[in-house]
Specification:
Helix content: under 10%
Number of domains: 1
Order of helices and strands: EEHEEEEEEEEH
Distance between the termini: 16 Å
């Protein structure tokens, strides 16, 4: 179990919590249509940077049922969102970085990266195309997947998500057609589940 107390976030007119930088496409794109959105104007884009820090305590750093060990934990998080401010079409890009630092177990220090983009192409007033791509790289939590305390290092995972859809409106309704996919390349050879279970 881990408990955290976050400090006051340093936000430059941000859009929201840095813990969830990947808003839904519709939430992101609605900001792209607002000329009065608060942020830092860079050309035809509005940029929303934010940062936060937190201090907590984890009483079972390795998520082990045998020999639990605790440590103070420091967390840092930074996000930058850039959203277009155009009358037609829309484009949004974001990048988020975070770090988790253990006071007593430096081997458990870790970092995560997430970045991506989403966009809308307006074909007609009632016809548009939306697409997105999201890339995330982060370590597995101890006690899940193949990341266990008995391993010398934490297991990093990479996930890529992408997709899109076409929206067509009518007088009394609308229809959408699209698809999405997720890809997670294997970072290490699979470790037999029955052997993993015997280690915890």
């Amino acid at each position: 179990m881990a408990c955290f107390a976050s400090g006051t976030p340093v936000v430059a007119q941000g859009l929201g919590s840095t813990s969830a930088p990947a808003f839904t496409t519709s939430e992101l794109l609605q900001f792209g249509q607002q000329t009065d959105a608060h942020g830092i104007r860079v050309g035809s884009f509005m940029v929303f940077p934010s940062a936060s820090m937190g201090l907590g305590y984890d009483n079972n750093v390795f998520a082990s049922s045998k020999d639990t060990r605790g440590s103070l934990t420091y967390k840092a998080d930074a996000t930058v969102n850039a959203v277009s401010n155009w009358s037609r079409h829309a484009l949004q890009m974001y990048v988020n970085g975070s770090g988790n630092f253990q006071d007593d177990f430096s081997s458990e220090n870790s970092g995560a990266l997430r970045t991506g983009a989403s966009g809308q192409l307006d074909v007609y007033r009632d016809l548009y195309v939306r697409a997105f791509v999201d890339f995330a790289m982060a370590p597995e939590d101890r006690g899940t997947g193949e990341s266990f305390a008995d391993f010398n290092r934490m297991i990093n995972t990479t996930t890529v998500k992408y997709g899109g859809y076409v929206h067509k409106g009518f007088n009394r309704g609308w229809t959408e057609l699209g698809a999405s996919a997720s890809h997670q390349p294997a970072s290490v050879p699979s470790f037999p589940r029955h052997l993993r279970n015997s280690l915890t």
